[in-house]
Every structure is written in structure tokens, then in C-alpha cells.
């Protein structure tokens, strides 16, 4: 579903250039949850942002659901990005919009009708346990509720892939557990492919099928989660 082929990313040029990713090869099969773990500065955030081309790789190919994003025109890319929902550590909600209107945002951008928007948003609010909160604003919500809004918003365009950028790093352990359970439900019930990056072992252990370790911009190890954590 997601395929990165020899992806490299350099920020800047000349003596101040930073090689953030080097020759990343990554395959994430349809319907799986794949984790990439690494220390701060290892290149995790750059890696996940290269999947939907929020960052453009300097070299290499990115293919999502059979379409090569790195070969697309800007307008095709805008369309293709609807295949990739994304959630972030700090939620990135719009503070002046209600819960409903935050979730509706991608559909408004796709110029869906008010009726379609309502038909799509209400079930997502139900699934994420936010129906009663739909009139509230982000400032009135807990961290976990905000992340639920962000998840519902990420799903609004019916993506095939969900990208999670340190999605639980700002949450307490109990809230983390409930958000991870929701991601697992989304994987199992909607069949979404999930790629997540994290610096937290527990996240990877609890929901990932397969794990990669990134260090100095290179994927240095990859294994099924059971093998990855087996003591030598
Ligand atoms: P991680 O998410 O694992 O902390 P990042 O992908 O954020 O790692 O960063 C990888 C490397 O790229 C680091 O050395 C970081 O300083 C550098 N980097 C990240 N973003 C930029 C940027 N916009 N401009 C220059 N260097 C960057
Ligand atoms: P209530 O009857 O309590 O106002 P509704 O279920 O009618 O609740 O609406 C819930 C929220 O959804 C409201 O904030 C409303 O503004 C919003 N809403 C309903 N339909 C749409 C739509 N088509 N587009 C955008 N927002 C909508």
C-alpha cells in the first residue's frame, strides 16, 4: 500500500546541508500497522512527511496505493493526498471551528455538498465518541478528545492510509491506551493501513504488526513486532 524506494532527503544546500534521510526502502502492506521508532533527530518526522509529500524527497520514489506520488503534477498530488489521512502530536485543530466543523473541513475543501458532509461527519463523530461534543470548540476538550477530533478529520476524506506523527506523545498513559485502541479499531474495522512514527516502545509493542528502527536517517533494522522485541 505504501512503498518508499531509495528515498533520501537533504535539507538546505552547501556546507549547512542536513541529510535527514538516506536511501530509505520501506514497504507497508495493505491493512497492516507499521511502526517506525527512533530517537529525536533520527529522521522519523521527515520520513512520515515524505509519504504524503508534505516534504518532497530529494531523490527516490514514493508510491501509495499503486500511484507514484513523486511523479505527479501538483493538481494530481492534491487529489492523491486524500488517500492519506494524517494526525499529529499537537492535533493541529482549528481553534475557531467547532468539533463538527473541524471534521468537516477536508470535505469542504473537496467541495462536497452539505448533505454529504453531514452524512460522513456524524458517523465519524459516533465512532470516535464525540457526538455529544460536536458543538464544542477545541479549547473545551481534553487532549484525548482533541486527538479523537483529529482522527475523525483525518478519516473524513475516506483515506486508505493513516499517517500518525507522534500521535500519542502529548497524551498521558491512560489516554494513550484509548487512542491506540481507536487506531487498532480503525485498522481492523475500516481496513486502513497505518504508518506511525514514535519514540515510545510501548506504542509499537501494543499495536504494530511490523517495526522499523531509524537511526541517523537510515532504516537500520526491520522485523515483525514479535521478533523485534524478543530478547537475544
Ligand atoms: P525526528 O522526527 O526523528 O526527531 P526529524 O525528521 O525531525 O527527526 O529530523 C531529522 C534531521 O533533519 C535532524 O537533524 C533535523 O535537525 C533535520 N531537519 C528536520 N527538519 C528540518 C528543516 N526543515 N530544515 C533543516 N533541517 C531539518
Ligand atoms: P443540533 O440539532 O443540536 O443543532 P445537529 O445534529 O443539527 O445538532 O448539528 C450538529 C452540528 O453540525 C451543528 O454544529 C451544525 O452547525 C453542524 N452541521 C449540521 N449539518 C451541517 C452541514 N451540512 N455542514 C456543516 N455543518 C453542519
Automatic annotation (TrEMBL):
<keyword id="KW-0472">Membrane</keyword>
<dbReference type="GO" id="GO:0005524">
    <property type="term" value="F:ATP binding"/>
</dbReference>
<keyword id="KW-0547">Nucleotide-binding</keyword>
<keyword id="KW-1003">Cell membrane</keyword>
<feature type="domain" description="ABC transporter">
    <location>
        <begin position="2"/>
        <end position="232"/>
    </location>
</feature>
<keyword id="KW-1278">Translocase</keyword>
<keyword id="KW-0813">Transport</keyword>
<keyword id="KW-0067">ATP-binding</keyword>
<protein>
    <submittedName>
        <fullName>Methionine import ATP-binding protein MetN</fullName>
    </submittedName>
</protein>
<keyword id="KW-0029">Amino-acid transport</keyword>
